[in-house]
Every structure is written in C-alpha cells, then in structure tokens.
Queue: 3 jobs
Job 1
Amino acid sequence: MTAVTPAPPSTAGAPAPADIAPGSRSGGRSRLRAAAGFAFGAALLFAVAPLALSDFRLALLAKYLCVAMVAVGIGIAWGRGGMLTLGQGVFFGLGGYAMAMHLKLADAGPGGMPDFMQLYGQLDELPVWWRPFASPWFALPATVLLPMAVAFGLGSLVFRRRVRGAYFAILSQALAAAMVILLIGQQGTTGGTNGLTDIQGFFGYDLDDPVNQRMVYFIIAGVLLALLALARQLIHSRYGELLVAVRDSEERVRFLGYDPASVKLVAYVVAAGMAGLAGALFVPAVGIISPALIGIVPSIEFVIGVAVGGRATLLGPVLGAVAVAWARTALSERFPGTWTYLQGLLFVVVVAFLPGGLASLWALARRRDAGPEQSRRGWPAPARRRASRAEAHR
Amino acid sequence: MSVLWGRRILAGAMTLVAAAAMTACGSKTSDEGGAAGVTADVSGDTVKVGLLNSLSGTMAISEVTVRDSIMLAVEEINAAGGVLGKKIQPIGEDGASDWPTFAEKAEKLISEDRVAAVFGCWTSASRKAVKPVFEKNKALLFYPVQYEGLEQSPYIFYTGATTNQQIVPGLDYLKAQGTKSVYLVGSDYVFPRTANKIIKAYAAANGMTVVGEDYAPLGSTEFGTIVNKVKSSGAKAVFNTLNGDSNVAFFKEYKSAGLTAAAMPVVSVSIAEEEVKGIGTQYLEGQLTAWNYYQTTPGAANGKFVAAYKAKYGADKPTSDPMEAAYVSVYLWKAMVEKAGAFDVEKVRGVSDGITFDAPEGLVTVDGKTQHIAKTARIGKVGADGLITEVWNSGKPIAPDPYLKTYPWASGLS
C-alpha cells in the first residue's frame, strides 16, 4: 500500500539501520552479529525447543515455522519490494499439493490410486496430470519450481504493464480465489473441500511415529534457517539495494537505466518459491492440505503475521508470523469462545500504534540508546534518507 | 566476504539437519504395529471428555447448538452420578470452522488433555481432517451430523444419518408422490457433490430424471441464475443440499420467482429448526425436509429432552436433528463404557454392538460393524410456526449402510 501523503518528519519505526545498509558498506560487526544471530537461532530451534516442548507442541512449532517461511518471502516481496502479495496462498498451495500428491501416491503403492478418487471420482485409472508426481524426482523439485513458474508467468505480465499498488493486491487475491474454486470443483481428482488428508508416510518413514515427526521438525527448522540466510544474502546484495530503490521510486530507477519490472519479478518469484517450499513441508508436519489453507483468508493471514512483525526487516516477518500463529493457538485454548475478538484487537493495536510492526519497537529502543552516536556507526547519510522515504510509503 | 558467511551458515545448517535426521530414524511405513495409542487419564475421580466444535467462523451458528446439547447431556449424566462413578469433566476447544485447526485441537485434546472420548465436528472436511489423528492415537470420536456416507473408521462412531437413512428415504418419498423429475441444487463441497452422485444413480434406476444440477460456492448469495434455470427446467421437485447462509438467498429468490411448495416442492437435507428460524418461515412454509428427528417428534424421551433444553438455554431455542444426535452420542458412550466396565477405547469399541438408547427420536441401536446407528427416517413439512411436522416416517429404524451395499443401483458408487 503506497501512501500518497508526504513523509512525516519523524522516522520512528524506520527499519533497523543494519537491515537497510548494504553489506558491502557495513563493517564486519554486522556480519558477526548476523552469524551470532543464526547460531542463536539454530541453538534455539535445534536444542532448546526439542528439549523444552512436548511432541504435540513441537509439531505445532513445526507448523508455525512453515508459516514463517512464507513470511520470509513476503518480507522480501512486500517489505523490500513494495508488492503487497495478498495471494501467497496460491504458491503455498501449489507446493503443498505437489508434495501431498506424491505422498498420497507413495501411500497407495505402485500402480495404486489415492482412496478418495474411487470414492468421489469413480475413476478407473490415475488422471494424466497426477502421474508424474509418483516420482520424487519430479514432485520434489516441482514443489518449488511450479510456484516459481506460475509467479514468473503472472509477474511478467503484470509488472511489465506497470500494475501495482492496490491493483496488484486485488489481482493476487483473485488468483487465490480462482484456485480455490478450481480445486473444489474438481472433487474427483483433487479431493474437493476435504483436500488431501490422511497422509501416512514421508519417503518411507511412518508419520505416526513421534520420532519421525521430530525429524520432520528438524528438516523444517533447518530449511527455515537456510531461507533466512538466503534472504539475508539477497537483501545485502546490490540487487537488494535496487529492490528497495524500486519500491521507493520506480520511475527514478527506470530513469537510471534499470528495468524495474525484472527487479520486482525476481523478488516475486523468490517469494513464491519460498511459499511453495513452506507448503511442501507443511504437508508432512500437519498431514493435510486443503483449499481452506490457500484461499483469500489464509493469504491475508500470512500478510498479517508479516505486518505485525515488521515487514522491512529480516527477522520481523519470521517472528511476527510465529508470534501470531502461537497467539492464535494459545488464545483459542484459553478463551475458546472469545479468542477471535482478542486476535482482532491485537491487530488493531499493532496497526494503529506500531505501523512498522513489533520490529520497530526494537529499532526505537536502539535509537534511544544510541542517540547521537548513530552517525559514527557507518550509517551513511543517503541510506538514512532512504530509510525515511521507506517510512513515507507505509 | 558475505557470500562466504552465507555458505558457512548454510553448511552449518545442513550439517545440523543431516545430524538430526541420522539420529532420528523412526519406524518405516512398512513396519507393522505403528505407534501405540495414548491412554486416557482416568486416575482421578473425574473423566475428561473433549468437545470439538466451531465456536467462531461460518459454521459457528450451527455448531454452537451442538455444543450446547452435548453440555446438556454431560450435566444430566453428572447429576445422575456420572459414568462408572466418575464425574465427566468437559474440555471445550474451538475448531474455528477451519479444518487444520480441527486436527490441531483434536491432537491437543488427545495427547495433552488425555480425554477418554471426543464429541463434535460438523462438516465432512473437518471430519476427514481429524480422522487420521484419531486413528493414529487410537482415540474415539463421536460424530453427530448426517453425512455423505462412504466412510467407516474404526475410531469414529457416527450418530447422525448416513445416506440410506436420510437421502434415500427422501427420494423414496418423492417417488411415492409420483415425482418424475428433480433438479439438484447444492453448495460446492463434498457432501452435496457425493449426495448428488447417489441421487443420480437412484434416479437412473427408478425412472426419475435429473433435469439439472447446480452448485454454488459455500456462503454464496447469488441465486438469480440458478432459480431461473430451475424454473425453466420444468422439474417436479428440487433436492436441496445447500448449506448455511446460501439457503436464505435461495429461498427468497425461489419465492420471488413465483415458485411454490405446492407446485414444485424443495426437499432440503441441511435445514433443521434452527435454520428455519434464520431463513424465515414465510419463505419455507410448506417445504419438505428429510431428517431423523424433529422437535415435534412424539414420545416421552423427546418431551423430556425439549423441556430440559429450553429450561437451560431459553424457551425460544428450538431443538434439531444434529443437536439430538449429539445429545444421544454422549449417552451412547456412557452406555458403552458401563457395559465394558472401563474407559479403555478398544474395550468400549468391543462392546458397542447392540447398545440401545431410548433417544428423543425413538429407540436407536449401535451397529458394531459399521459403528453407525440404526435410525428412523422422517420426512417433515415446515409449518407456519417455524416448526417441522412429520408427514412420513420409515416405520422402524433403518439399519445403517454407509457404502450402500444392499442397494443394487448403488453398486457402481463405492
């Protein structure tokens, strides 16, 4: 949502300096801090969480981390690229369905058919478009490449025609709605509203076994860390700078001789790939993928987590997504009747009082501490101006 | 430099993943047995049961009434001394009309709260989502809503009607009235699509024609086109499997198009007393419904149930078929536990066959093989007072046949 109001003089809630300054200019301290952060995150995810949480809670955390993967992608496309992607459910769904189709076929055994096809479709043989998914060598790459291909196709059309802002958001929503209608209509081959459920195995491992569930959690935690590392690389590269520039002033970037459409396309495709991977890992973690997980409402919920956390930062979207998902579970267990009101209240408070998300609290605190010292930290003046411009486009 | 760091971090992460994967190799899918179930915690002087219904979202309006009647049964049982001398402690969770949330909450009730049984779910999608959870943990679910059949999980008891106790009798009734052509209107999800498949097979074998079939997305309120198609189709009756709000728009449109219950009756399978109130009696008067229970069903057991419900929740609250089935499910579980003399799931399942209960709808009997219950089918007509009165019933309880194996015309369906 690009606001047309002029920039407020205050920079409260601006993204943390280190996240805006490109890596080439920030000192070794930033890299060290990042490495320490990753080590801390890894220790938390791989050592503390498995020890502290019951099997049930760990499985829930695995689910939250999948949502966080989508959030990392949205952080890049929306927070950095200014594209309000309100249809990430589509890519999440493509990845999820690709994985679930493979696992259903693996459960059915060679030559077998998923149970629901006989029940609802009365099919005698597997539909042609299901067949390639029997092979893991097709299905696994497809979980990421299929969403990326769709994003590439859509993005190429949309960004070249300079569709942006609310129009882009509406378009991505429409895509999510269309995909849900398509899936529900084809009940015999897609499972309809039920989706693909009752997934037993994961590449030969029995998903009912808590030990294997734990393994799935470790894979998810590892992939999330890897995606974060990738996102950090992207943000701190020359491309990452260009992306922020496109967000803040597309015309000016075009005037300088770059093609803003390609710059946005890359971010959109990367975000789609991350959402696809998240969907693929969601399936073994939760055991279900259905149209209810990929429509308009879940697509908006992905974005809400990012907004709550702070979209322009690296960690904000991840923490926001996990926090919102966790709050959802905790509130609904404690107040089964009224928790939706509390959830709504939380969003209103964050959006009204912390437009930069929870991450802006951190930035605010740090600026208070640092005070005039800030300029000595290698925080160049142009970048600071850019930060305040970014604020103007909230 | 930064590229180097990224690689190191990535390598570190990958090593961790590999290490974790190597240390954590659980059972393969080819292994026999699988995970042992979670045993319910019955050590104290109470026994916990889970109530899993949507208290928020689109399904809340229907599912809250089911929650209310389960609570009524629990309170009645507790007042009468509990089950095996233990008071029932209900633990409620909100499924939020969201299928994966149902799965999450089911897992929580079973493995964190260690309940002895769970009562709830409404939509087929939510049941399909929780089914693997109950099967994995070898825990019990009592499902109280009519559904599309074609399912028989060893860990689910189905206390609502399956297709041969609701849809097939509805069609038999239309056939007996001399109806030769029907138009099918439904919401776009599993129950209507499967039900309509069964209706088409029935029609083909019984000399009826299906002159049209239309689906509207769940929650849709645009019925101008569909009603026009129904009107011009010349059908003698409409079989309606719409759910929720869509019914309001459909029946308003139906009436304003000049279609009447006398000329072209609509048989609905998802409209009960609660929904009649919401849609408006003026639109529904004279239309038909197919269920197993109505608030007006005669009998002392129903008189007691209706009076107790109204005393607890208000005189203006109607009772309906899913509410009754949910109420019955708690009593059936109690009877099974008492017959087994234990809360143990396998023992409870083992003694389930032949358990009877003098329910508000009449005598019901559990069929141990299918884990469904024998129920009397009832066709009703909506009256001006918003209540539904019976116009036909099957005379005796119909044995459940979820896969329609005893119906020759249905041989191609499952």
Job 2
Amino acid sequence: MNGAELHLLRSCSHWVLFALSVVFVPPLCLGIIRKTKARLQNRIGPPLFQPLFDILKLCRKGETLSSTMSGTFRISTVVVFATMLVLAWMTPWLCFKPWSPNADLFLIVYLFALARVFTLLGALDSGSAFGAFGASREVTLGLLVEPALLLGLVALGIFCGSSDLRLVFAYSPLQSTGVSGAPGIWLLVGVSILLSSLVELSRMPVDDPTTHLELTMVHEAMVLEASGRNLALIEFAHALRMSILFGLSAQCFVHAAAAVWRMSPLTQGILNIAGIGLIAISVGVLESLSVKLQWRKVPEFVAYVVSMSLLAALVAAGSGVTKL
Amino acid sequence: MKVERREIALGERTETIRQLLHRDSRRLGLISSINGSQLISLVLNPVEGAAVCWETPLQSKEYHSLAPVISQAHWFERTLWDMFGLEPENHPRLKHNLLHEAYSPHLLPLKLDQNLFVVGNGNGSGISTYTSTGTNGNGNGSGNVSENGHCRDYKPMVVKGDGIYEIPVGPIHAGIIEPAHFRFSCLGEVIFNLEIRLGYVHRGVEKRLCEMPWRKQRFLVEAAASDSAAAYALAHSIAIESLFDITVPPKAEYLRTLALEIERAAMHINDLGGLAGDIGYLAISSTMGRLRGIALSMAEKLTGSRLQRNFICPGGVVFDPSGKLSEIKKLAHQLRKDLQPVMTFFMSNEVARDRMENIGVISPRLAADFGIVGPAGRASDQRYDARQYFAHGVYPRIRVPVAVETGGDVLSRAKVRIAELDSSLFLIEQLIDGLPDGDSLLKLPDSLPKNESGLGIVEAHRGELIHMVFTDEEGKCSRYAIKDPSVNNWTGLAIAVRNNLVSDFPLCNKSFGLSYSGHDL
C-alpha cells in the first residue's frame, strides 16, 4: 500500500466515522443527559438511545397542521435542519473530520443565528400565542448570548492569528508556539462556550426542557405546533446543535490538554468523543441540582458568560501583543 | 355542629350581613339557596364556634347583590345564578360559573319548582333536559336566556391598549391536571389580568346527593374531591351527626383526626414537591415524591386505602385499626426526621428562594376581603384556622399551633405548609399516644330528623371546608350544600398573579394548590 492509498483509506474512514457521529452522537448526547438525571433521582430512566427511537417513531407518525399556517412553517424546519447539517460539516466539533470548506468563525456564529431566525419564523407562523411568546423569549436570549459565543471564538482566533476555525482547531499552532498561557485560554473559552450553549439550547438554568408548563417554556413553546416528521426534524436539528456546541467545548478542553501533554491523533479522537459524553453527564448533574432562574435574572447569568469570553479575548489579545 | 336559623327580609339583608361581618372576627361561610325560593347566608362566628344561617324569602328571582359591599360574595352569586336562576342586581361581573354554553338555557338544576318566578303565561314546565334548546316552551324568565336569544353567553373581560395581547390556556393542559380555562391579558411578559373559567368537571354532585339514601351519601362525598377524601367524609359525618344531635365516641374522634392529619401531611408534601418541580428543582421534587409515599402508606395502614376512602362515616369510623397504630407512629416519626434536612436544603437554596420571594403576592387586606382560607390565607397574615374554632375530630380541645406568615408570596405559602406539615406529623404521634379506649362506631337511626339543618366545618388541607345539610318534612335530604376551600381561593390566585411574569404563573398556581373538581362539584 502506497502513501496515496493510505491517505485515501484514512480519509474514507474519517468520512465513515464522521457520518456515524452525526447520526448517533446527537441522540446519544440527549440520552446521556436524560439517563443522568433519571439516575440522580433514583429512577432507572429510558435507554440511552431512546431519543433516536423517538425520532424514528415520529417519522412514522402523521402530521397535524394548523389552518393558519403558511408554507413558512414547513420550509423553516427544513432550513433549520439543513443549516445544522452544514454546520456539523463545517464546524470543527470533532477532530476526525474529513475535508471541509472554509470554517470562518463569523460565518459559523451567524449560521447559528440563521437557524434561530428560521425557528422564530416557524414559531410565529404557527399562529399560536405560545409560539409568539416563545419566539420573543428566544430573541431575547439569542441577543444576550450571541456576544458570548462570538467573543469566545474570537479569542481563539486572535490567539492563533486566524479566523478560520480549521486552523484554530488544528492542534499544530499550539505545539509549535507552546505559550504557557495557552491551556488557560482554551479552558476559559471551553467553559464559556459550554455555558453559552446552555442558554443557546434553552437548557437549565435558563429554561427547563423537561417541563410540561407551556407558560414557562422557551424553545419548547416555539415547537409546540410541530408534529410527525416535522417534529422529528426539529428534534434532530436541536440535538445536532447541542452536540456541535458541546463538541466545540470538548475540543477546547482537549486542546488545553494537548497543550500540556503530547497525544496521538487517536487519543485526541477518543478524548473528543469522551469529552462530549462527560459534558453531557455534567449538564445532567447540573440540571438535577440547579433551580431554574427567574426570567429577570437570566441576563445576569448571561453577563457572567459574556465577561468570561471577554476575559479570554483580552488575554488572547494581550499574549498576541507580547508575541509581537 | 348545630346551626341557628334566623330569618331576615330581603331589604335588610345587605346591611345586616355587612354589619355582622364587620363586627369582631365573623366570617362569611357560604351563600346559597335551599330550593330557589330563598337565599341562605351562613355567617360563622369563630370566637364562639357558632354559626348562624340567615334565610331570606324571595318574591322574585331578582335580589340585591352583596358583592359590591362584600367582595367574597361575588363567586357564590355566580353559582346561584347557574343553579337556581336567581339574578343578583348590581353584580360587578356576573358570568356563568359552572354551567357552560353546552347546557340548555332552561336548565336550573337545583331549583325545586321550575315554574317559580316564571313571568307570563309560560308553559315552561320544568324544562330541565340537557337536549332541549331555546324555543322549546315559553321559558323566558325561568332560564338563563339572554336577550339576543343566544344562550349562556360567556364573555371574558377584554383588556385594551397598545401591545396588550391574550394568551388562552386550557381547558386541556399539557400535564395530567384538571381542566380550567385561563385567559391572560399580558403586556410583554407581565400579566395584567387573569380570568379563570372553571366548571369543566361539574358533575352535579350536590343534586345527586339529595337523590340518594343518606347512608350512601358518604361514598359520593368522598369521591367528589378525592384528594380531600378524609376531610370531605369528616365534614359530611359531622353535618349528619349534627342533624341527629349526637356526639361520637372519643376514640372515633381521635381516629378521624388521625386520618385528617395524615391527609394534610400527604398533600402538603405533594404541594411542596410540586413547587420544587415547577422551579426545576428536580432533586427536591423527586425526594418529595418518595416521601409522599411514606405518608400514603401511613394512610393505608390506618384505613386500608391510600386515599383514605371508606373509613370515616357518620357515627364514627368504619373499623378500628388500633393494631396498626404503633407502626403508623413509627412511620410518622421517621417521616418527620427525613423531611427536616430536605426542607432545610430546599429553603436554603438561594436561587429557589429568589424564585419564590415576592412572587404572587396577595396583601392581607385583599386576603381578608376575599376570604382567602387555608395555607394561602395564613400566608397573608390571616389567623384563621378552623381547627382553632370549630368542633371536628379532637379540635378545638387539642390546640395546634397556627402557622402564620405575613409576606403573602409564594415563599410564605411554602413556609406555612412546611410548618403545618411538621406540626401535623408531631400531632399524629401525640394522638396515637393519647388514644382513648372504647367504641369507635355509634349506631345511627335509619331516618333523618325532619325539617332540620346540619353543618360540618373542617379544616381540610386547603382550608375551611363547609358541608351543610337540610332535610324536608319527610325527613329526606332536600339540599346538600358544599363549600370547598377552593371556592374562596380561586379568586385569590387571579389577584396574586397580577403584575407578575407569565412564566411565574405555574408557580403561583401551584403555591395555592387549588382543586378544580372540588370547586366544580
């Protein structure tokens, strides 16, 4: 076997691994959170792959559409799902990624925003009062948390001297520069992405995803009118968004570790996946022990996250200056 | 307990009752009618543990509404309109309460003589079938037909203004709870007005109770609001016993109190767990779910039924569970010990307190005006606990501490429940220690006394529960009136949520812990 063949085999195996991850990691992520919460309440809980079974079940079900809906509702779901697939392909949330196009961090942040806009359009189009106020809450949260995710990624961009996330998450610049502050920045950004993803995904302590109370919901209120395959797509897109964000955060932690210990690509890959699982477990623990914040206190929580990202950006800018 | 019956003319009614209620600490028990030809207003005197039933004979279906001077009356008068077709003049917001659009406009379920007060040469002879509609018979005047011919219109209050929008919720809800329609008028996230529409589970319990032999009434009474089965059975038993003018053996009194307190403990645990669940505090909510199981198994040991059905009956209790009492005592002790750290954990969580503090506030003045009862009333500085004043079970001989808070918010209601939960469990242990010997069931005569009235007042876990029985000249039960604590407190919820966030409504709702079926009956 020559070099070219080896390379082809390697990229083929990457494609296969990537495809499997896109299909199985998102529902597994949800499953782990649910299982953790169940175990902490002394319940056995549903099987780990129950979210996947639920999505498959929804695919077989019929659909009920409100008579006030226009085509926007259906289109929005498809757009959100497609955007998430593109994001899964572009964003370096897994380290065993096949070839991907330019992964500009601004593009990625605003593709997330695009998905949000279409979720909102769908919610407003459904014509129910819950959809409307769910949308208004989502906009508020989105506005607040956008700087956190953006600043976190910008901090990494400044530090690595590129806004292309393929280069930022390439493991190489760190090992070559070996700045002592490096693991710190990675950790800081990892935590800030994780916390902002809790807001982004409407999870505790901002929104209780398990609640049945329509009046308190954020994300769930927007998708109340969806059913059948439409709902399956929404659920899967949401789970995918979760694993992309958790994956980004896990990647940051793996990079922090890689800045200290040298590790092989295989270890990195395993750590990456294990990191997502660990993050899911910790989110489950957090959700069991924390209390949902009062809606007026949510900006306070988001402010902590934003300032954490800001700190990371400042440190990165500072270290950039010293390098120069 | 015995109830004194006095007559009062229609013209003097408003003024007399207003003055009575302003004097010392008298309370309005209930307003209703026996057969549609009179009004009865039950005025309670807690200090003396006595009650007076004021009867006002009616010449027409119109009467002066009490609601403008006694706010609490507004709800009773709405029910009176539905059940007897009696129309209050000057009622601030007269709407149908229990009977919705689907019912025939001529249906006046509790009115005995359907032709009474019918104007004109009507042949509207008691049209009370569910299927008959509008034009069937000249029933104008006897039913609730509005002028445009459409029947039983219901118009929720509309709040107008820039940016005000309405959120309709229910009657079918997302969780497994009872049905009610909530209509919020909001400005952004802030609730301006909440209109509550109940009646979806109206089953005609009060009418059915008059149609059945009195010995079977207790089964229906228990089933009317199953989460207060013991309280309902106790109130019913006291009302029937007061007709016969008998007192039950002391041992039965103790056993009945045990059942009542176990029910209170189980429901307070349930309500506190629900509060924790609504703020997303899963650790507490699932622990409370487990602990409620212990309270329910105490109930099962005492009565053979986890919801305490078929235990308390007129004359005493159905059987004597003395052999199981030591086990119940052990469980009560264990439960009290288990609860303490959980409650400390719950109340010491800063975010949890933050969620409950100053949310859903109902001021002491409004609580007094609308006669808010039970834990919700005591959280708003109302020192009223029927256990202090009215004879039921071992009360008021044995005094329990009254848990009073002044905040009037969700946190205060939670604190009152925690305090009562602790005192209930402590009382259970004490009662078991002090259990007297003797019989636990007294045999009652077969037929009820004629032309009598009986009253039972019980402090259920939601607050003051009133059962009132009237018998006719044949010794048959002619009217059975029930006032569930929720009748008072639903209005309290509507007041409490004003100017709160929409997202805090479920929490406020849970903190009142109201019964839908108890209200609708």
Job 3
Amino acid sequence: MQYKSQAVAKPYFIAAIGLFVGQILFGLILGLQYVWGDFMFPEIPFNVARMVHTNLLIVWLLFGFMGAAYYLVPEESERELYAPWLAHAMFWIFLVAGALTILGYLMVPYAKLAEMTHNELLPTMGREFLEQPTITKLGIVVVALAFLFNVGMTVLKGRKTVVTLVLLLGLAGLAVLFLFSFYNPDNVVKDKYYWWWVVHLWVEGVWELILGSILAFVLIKTTGVDREVIEKWLYVIIAMTLITGIIGTGHHYYWIGTPEYWQWWGSIFSALEPIPFFMMTVFAFNMVNRRRRNHPNKAAVLWALGTAVMAFLGAGVWGFLHTLSPVNYYTHGTQITAAHGHMAFYGAYVMINLTMISYAMPMLRGRTAANSERSQVLEMWSFWLMTVSIVFITLFLTGAGILQVWLQRFSENPQGFMVVQEKIALFYWLREIAGVVFLIGLGTYVASFFVGAKEPEALPEGAAASA
Amino acid sequence: MSQTFTKAMARNIFYGGTVFFLLLFLVLTFDTTRALPARDNRAALTPTVAHGKAVWEKNNCIGCHTLLGEGAYFAPELGNVYKRYGSKEAIIGFIKSRPVEGIPGRRSMPQFNLSDKDLDAVAEFLKYVSEINAAKWPPNIQG
Amino acid sequence: MSQTVVIAPAPGRYPPGDLAIWIFILAELLVFAVFFAAYAFARAGDVALFDEYQHTLDRRAALVNTLALITSSYFVVRATAAIREGSARDCARWLAGAIGLGALFLVVKSLEYAHHLEAGVHLGTNTFYMFYLSLTFFHFMHVLMGMVILGAVALKARRGGYSATEHTGVETGGVYWHMVDLVWLILFPLVYVMR
C-alpha cells in the first residue's frame, strides 16, 4: 500500500463480503421456495426474500465499487485521498441506511413500509430492483455525490490516468442514471421505458466502464505490461461497449408497448453486445501472456482471467441466446432470463469485485503483495467452487427455461404457468443443490482470509529458482 | 511492421462513438414518445387506474409476478390476466380469497387484506395494462 | 503515444491511418452489414410491400447524393495526396470541398425527409419505411460525424499540424469518410434501386 488513505477501502470490502453472504443465504431460501412453495410462508414470502436477495446484491456491489475506487484512485493519482474522513462517514451512513432498509423489508409488510416512509409523497417503490423506500433512494444519491466529490477531487488534484478517468466516467454515469429511478409516471409504458435507463444503462453501460477500469488497474499491477498498451485496449473495449450497449437498450423495448421498430434496432445492436466482452477476454489473456513478471498473488490473476471469461459467457453468450426479438418473443420473462441474469451478474460484477478484493486485501492487511501460499490455495478452491456451481445453476435454469417455453408457449396445447412449474421442478431441485455448492464455495472464500494468515507470503513463481 | 495505434485515437473514438450513439438513442426516444399515444392505452388512464398502479407497487406484486414479461418468474404473468380471467370480478375474487396461512406445500399468494376500493383499482389497472399494444405478446393466453 | 518514435516514412505504410480507426470501421461495417441483412430478410418476407413503397422514393435525389459522395471521396484522396507533397493549404482546401459536398448531401436528404414527413410517413408506417428511415438516418448521422472529423482534420491542416512525413490524422479521417461513402454505395442500390 503506497498511500495511507487507501486503507479506507478495507471496511468497504469487508461490508461487501458480509452482504454477499447474506445475499447467497436468501438466494438459497428463494431456490427452496421454488420447490417447497410454503417454505417460510407467510413470514418471509417469496417477494420479500427476492427483494432482499437482489437489493443486497446491488448494495454489496456498490460497496465493492466504492472500495475499489478508494483503493486505486490514490495510487493512480499519486496522492492521498482528498477527504478520508468523508469516506469513513459515508461508509457508516450507507451501511446503516442499507441495513435499515433490509430490516424494513423483513420486519414489516411492504405496504406498511411504504406508509411508514411516506411513499405517497414521491412514489418510487414497488418496481423491480428499485424497491427501496424513497428516503433510502435519496440517501443513495447523497452517498454517491459525496463519494464522487471525494474521488473526483483526488483525481483532479493528482495525476490523471485513463484508468481513473474511465472509472470516474462510469461512476458519474451510475449516479446520473440513478436519478431516473425517481421518475415513476402512471403510464406503465413510460414507467418501463425509463426504468430501463437505470437498469440496462447501468449493467450494460456505465458499470462496464467501472469493470473495465478496475480490470485494467489490476492487470497493470499484476502483469507489469506497459500502461500505454493496457489503456489503449481499455478505450477500445469501452468504446465498443457503449456503441453497442446504448442502442442495445432496445432489446427491452420489444413487448412493453413501445413501437415495433425496436425489434429491429434492439436485435441488431444487442446482437453485437458480445463483441466488447469477447475483446475483454482476448485482452486479459493477452496481457497475462505478455507479462513481464510473475506476480506472487496468483489468486488475483486467476480472478481477473475468470472475470473476463465468465463475463463473456454470462453477459455475452447467454445474453445473445435470447436477445433476438423472434427468440425473445418466446423466452421473454421465463427462466431463460433468470439463467442469463445469474451468470452475467456473477461473471461480470461479482467477479470483478472479488478480483479487486483479492488484489488489494493482502496489502490492506499489511502484506507487501500477496497472501500466504495456503490462503491462496484455499481462495483458488473457492474460485472454482463458486464458478463451477454458477455454471451449473445457469445450465439448470436454462433447462428449466427451455422446457417452460416449450410447454407454456410453444407447444400445440399451451399449459398454465403453475402446471408447467410443477413439471420442471426437477431442474429447480438441481439448481438448489448447485446453490448449496456455491454457498460452500463462498464459505471457503471467507475462510481463506483466516487460514494461513500468520504464514509467510507466497513467492512469485520461479522466484526461488532465480534467487 | 510500421503501424500506429495511438491512445489519442482510441480515446477520440470512445468519446465520438459514445456521443454519436447517445444522440441516436435520444432521437429514437423522441420518436418513441411521439408514437406512444397510439399504443399505450393512455385514454384508459383514469384516477382509478393510477390508484391501482399505486396499490400494485405498494404490495410489491412485481416481486413474484411478471407484468409484460418483466418482474419475478415465481408466479404467473399478469399483463394479460384480465383477458385470461375474463373479468375484473374474477381477479378481485382471486386476490380476496387467498388463505392467510397459504396452501400447504404449494406456492401461495399472501392475503393482502385490500379494501374494496383498492381491489377495484388494482383490477382496473390490470385491465388497462391488458389493453396496451404489446406487439402481440404474450404468445398465448397462458402468458 | 507521446514518444513519437520516428516511424518509417508514411507512404507504403499499410493500412493507412491509425489502426484504431480500422477496428472502429470494422465494427461499423459489421453493424451496417447486419442491418442490410435484416433488410434483405424482411424484404424476402414481403416483396410486394417493399416494391410498392420503393416507388415513392426520389431516385433522382439519391443519385445526386451518390455523385456528391463519390466526388467528395475523390476530394479527400486529393487532400491526402496534397499533404503527402507537403502542401497543407491545398490539403485543407480539398477537405473543405469534401465537407461542402457532405453538406449538399445533408441538404438533399433533408429535403427528401421533409417530403416524407409531409406525406405523414414515419418509422411506424410500415416495415419498408421503418428500414428506409432507419438505414438512411443512421447513415445521415454518419455523414454528419464524418464532416465533423474532416472539419477537425482540415482545421489542424490549416494550422500546419501535418507534414509530408507525419499526416496520420489526414489518412485516418479520410479512411473514415471513404467508409461512409462505401456504405452509401451499398445502401443506394439496395434501398432505392434494386427490385
């Protein structure tokens, strides 16, 4: 760690991992409810558990992004963070606000929560992923602005690099687009149209800028490849991301009452959305192959490569599967969407956060570059457990989705939703088993922070031979 | 090999391309806004429907159901439920009759204890949604 | 890259211009190719409709525009040749000519759009008009973009920013303009003429 103030990243990373565990536990509850309908009913109905599952995901990813920014911005800008105290204050505000919101979901009925927080003054609740009470949303805006100010001032006063510039652009876009969550017209079509400006333009737009810049940073640090080369790649990749991704929003405008030309515009541009992800995979492997040194933190390099591959598979390939409008006509709103959602979020955003945490945490905990050999081995085990199980979750959900589409929408005698759900229950059981393996992987991951903590640092490959 | 591949050019393409496609997106959004009145059934947007949407949101219906294919995939599509059930009364009857403790072993909808006014409004809202021109989606009445 | 290593003399370098623009051009051509393929696919599904409405297009205007773009491409070639001889002023002049022809293209196309607008045609009218308007407008924006690029290059040329040995920028801008021209040369027969 080169700058003292980078240390503010540590609580952010710890909170992120803690919330991640919570997210997965609720994911298992949801998976079980799919096959054991009245599990925890009526105390925790499905909608509440799902809200907790998705909101925890969003919040912990944001914690991770902020931690990543606080860690890499001082190092890139070659100066201390503008206001470390502000970062600490925002951490607690965000954590408390987030915890209260989640407790609100769990303790009182949602309608009661809406009344308690006076949702009627500015109704924004009750829309997928944007279920937070309006007051929480305002809190998110305040935290985001304070965070942007802090990071922005650090960048402005220090060295400006492409990595920080792209990161800032992505974070600023994240904050600006979130403002559309306050627009909730009575007209359902308009509501949905602009809802996607938050959701799609986040995950298939500005978040990819954040992802790209964090990946670039970790690759610069671990491979020692010339910064010029990596930054050029970064620009080309994010250019392709936005060129395809902005109009690609159209793949959500097929069946929500918007004009039918979106079926063409959306299909054409979103069919090209895998390109930037493919380039990212090529880029990551290329850089690692051209490395000038072997970094002792092998786990971080594994996560970085894993991100590139899994983001391409989840966001690129599984996205392409159902993005063309004639296909989407049948798959829209089925388990196919769920399959894609799970692998894309894990591959792109979970993994980039774990990459950054893996890279930064050893330094934040007082190591020079890497954890002990034993700790890293355990961490790499967790990588494989989680990654392989998410692949299986995706495959099982895809299987469920294909059957669902066939029985409910495509066959000669379409059957009712609930009838079909019972017929595909086997896939949900298999998905739940894969989910349990994922939890074991996550447990292994958490354990890797404690195992071998007192042992000496791992040496880079080949270091002993050349010494 | 004497090739140039400059960072400045990569940067210009990024900024130029982003602005270009953002503008194009805004143009398409403008055209969509212009075309919506003919498709989005706004004539049916009464205060009752608006209240119905508020009831829909306040009870987090999207947490289990899909509406025009968007939402959770745990319970049936409701964008066309008015057509599937055939009347507002049938919808109201279903929501009203959910057992508090659920149905043993099966997925159950919670009992929301809605007032008659709320029930009527949410049914009216679902009727309004079913009359939006959604390009012939869903493929059949099962949603 | 700031350390402008004296790269081997520009003529003979292949491909001309910055490699980054070629990646971009490939992506753009891919988008257009998919768009054209979609057009062909949709047309095969309803040839009668496409033929019927194709008649409402103004082929003379499109021909004028084709000639304007071809000529402008020639001007860009002359501009590149001029800077290779070291004549920045001539280079800027040829580029200004190309930009002028680009403007002519935009005016003619706008008149066509005005005509359609008057007739009440819009994206939702039918599949043919959807494709016609989408494709031509998408290309229209590319012409505009190309003009901005050529404008920036021309300004830099006039200020003496290029020389006989270092003029990658002129080539880069030129290559992009040729791409815009090339796309029109496919679009014109496909949408206006072919039946």
